[in-house]
C-alpha cells in the first residue's frame, strides 16, 4: 500500500499529470466529435483535426482553463519548495 500524497513535490507532479491527461482526453473527444460530424474527408483534402464554431470554442475553452489552473497549481507548489527540507531519493519513492 502506498503512502498518502502529502509532499508538495508529489502533489506538483500529480497536478501536472492531471492537467496533461485532461488536455489529452479533450483532444481525443474533440477528434471523435469531428469524426462523427464529418466522417468522410471533403474533396478539398483531409478534414481538420479541430472543430469549429461554438463546438470549437468549447473545446478551446476547456483546454485554456485546464492549462491556467495547472499553471496556478504549479506556481503554488513551486513557491512552497524553497521552505521545504530536501528529501533524499529512496527506493520507496
* Helical amount: 55-70%
Quantity of strands, as a count: 0
Mean pLDDT: 82
Judged by helices, strands and strand pairing, the structural class is mainly alpha
Number of helical regions: 2
- In angstroms, what separates the terminal alpha carbons? 12 Å
Rg result? 19 Å
Main β-sheet description: none
Order of helices and strands: HH
- Silhouette: elongated
**Unreliable sequence segments:** none
Beta strand %:
under 5%
Show the helix and strand layout.
Elements: H1 8-37, H2 53-80
Helix pairs in contact: 1-2
Question: In words, what does this structure look like?
Answer:
The protein has helices at 8-37, 53-80. The chain starts with 7 loop residues before the first helix and ends in a 13-residue tail after the last helix. By secondary structure, the chain is mainly α. The protein is elongated.
Amino acid at each position: 500500500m502506498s503512502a498518502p500524497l502529502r509532499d508538495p513535490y508529489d502533489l506538483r507532479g500529480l497536478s501536472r499529470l492531471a492537467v496533461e491527461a485532461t488536455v489529452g482526453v479533450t483532444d481525443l473527444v474533440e477528434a471523435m466529435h469531428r469524426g462523427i460530424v464529418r466522417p468522410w474527408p471533403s474533396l478539398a483534402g483531409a478534414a481538420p483535426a479541430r472543430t469549429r464554431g461554438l463546438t470549437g470554442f468549447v473545446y478551446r475553452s476547456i483546454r485554456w482553463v485546464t492549462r491556467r489552473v495547472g499553471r496556478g497549481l504549479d506556481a503554488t507548489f513551486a513557491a512552497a519548495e524553497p521552505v521545504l527540507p530536501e528529501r533524499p531519493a529512496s527506493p520507496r519513492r
